[in-house]
Amino acid sequence: MSSQKSQSDTYSHYYAAESIKNNQILQRCSATGLAIVRFEDESLQTYNTGGPYKIHKASNVYVGDIWIMAGQSNMRGHGYQIDPYTTCSLIEQGQPGIHLYDSKEEWTTAKEPLHQLYLSTRTVHHTLPDPTVKNPKLLKYRGASLGLSFAKHYRQENSNVPVGLVASAHGGTSLNDWKRPDALNDDTEDRTLYGAMMARIKAVGGPIGGILWYQGESDTNAAADASTYKDRFRLWVQTVRQDLNNPALPIAFVQIGPHAIDVEETKKNWQSVQLAQFDLMMEEGYTAGVASIDCSLDDRLHLSAAGLKIVGKRLAIAASKLLKASQKGVGLFKEPFCAQYQDPLIPDLEGRIPPCILFTTSQTWSTADLVENDDILGFGLRCEDKSVAIIHARAAEDATHIRIWISHKPKTELFLTYGLTYPLAGSSNKGWPAFCIKVKS
User: Fold this and answer.
1) Alpha-carbon torsion angle 326, 327, 328, 330, nearest 10
2) Number of separate domains in the chain
3) Using the 8-state DSSP alphabet, how is residue 82 labeled?
4) What is the domain range of residue 19?
5) Phi (first) and psi of residue 231, to 5 degrees
6) What pLDDT was estimated at residue 374?
7) How confident is the model at residue 10, as a pLDDT?
8) 89 by DSSP, 3-state: which?
9) 66 assigned to some structural domain
10) Which helix (H) or strand (E) holds 135?
11) Of 269, 267, 211, 272, nearest to 240 (Cα)?
């Protein structure tokens, strides 16, 4: 805490001392690492990143970063909290410096389940269907989320900065359910997900570190929703940033992951949403995406506690990179995947055997767990020539590339896919998203 008080009005944001609650996280200024509190005598007090502080009548107050948890059930968390066959705990435990603005819209120390929607006073959480609202007893054994894993790894990435999580997700919701209402007022803050999220942001003080988003499964129910997901999500991101007056607001999202769906149309739509999210991952700016296709499930749609811990860590790394990019005012650069034909180097074989596909990742997508000459599963091909096939895919060049042998070179365009079939054998914890990219000559 700074030892000086000031009457200066040069600060862009301050917290009213009398409004601060027990266990609250105050959002630090990205440039200075400080939070400013205004007292009743109109003096201003600065507080450094960290804590705990006692401010006015509130205790256990920290200064750090606030992240909104938005989306549907995989963000709300629907993993088993305990193993149903052994009763062993599967969840992350809380720790000092990780706090939650909970479903009752009160600050508390964070512990699972992070979302308890049945306790919300907002109408929207009781009109949109969610199994934990209809039957809150589910939360006795389900409700494990990615939030605590995110917060712990985010602290590791950012000098142990305190983290405030704001519970705003709701199960089973589509992107249309998250659409901005025409006006933000008391009624829409009560009856819409977007309005409720904005009301919570206002209630926790205004500035936030960013938004965590995990949604898209419900948009696979109809081809029209799946095919327009990319443009609609871009608009949603733009709208949020406009409403918060922060064009560089970090937004870290999760590409929808594995499933055990047996409806062919839904499976096709699922791939459409995944590929839309992959395209969004590759765009420069203040939005970043992470994969979940290599994570385990607890049912046909919902990631397990173990899978959510992995995704939480990935989100923490992505969010940290976005935060640094936002502070610099320079959008995060995304190195794309690359797939190109490679002819054989033995002259006698040139033209007698087909070229292979040389696949290259980038620093964004690690190949650290690959071993040279290991077979790599999960790749596929898309082409008008349905007879072209993969012979094998193996790590090469000290495991920095993957060389994919194919049956023949088609006369039409060829696209290399990854992660679009399940189960994704041999891909554990690579962290690669599902994708479809053109093979270049």
Assistant:
1) 10
2) 3
3) B
4) 5-59
5) -65, -40
6) 75
7) 42
8) strand
9) yes
10) none
11) 211
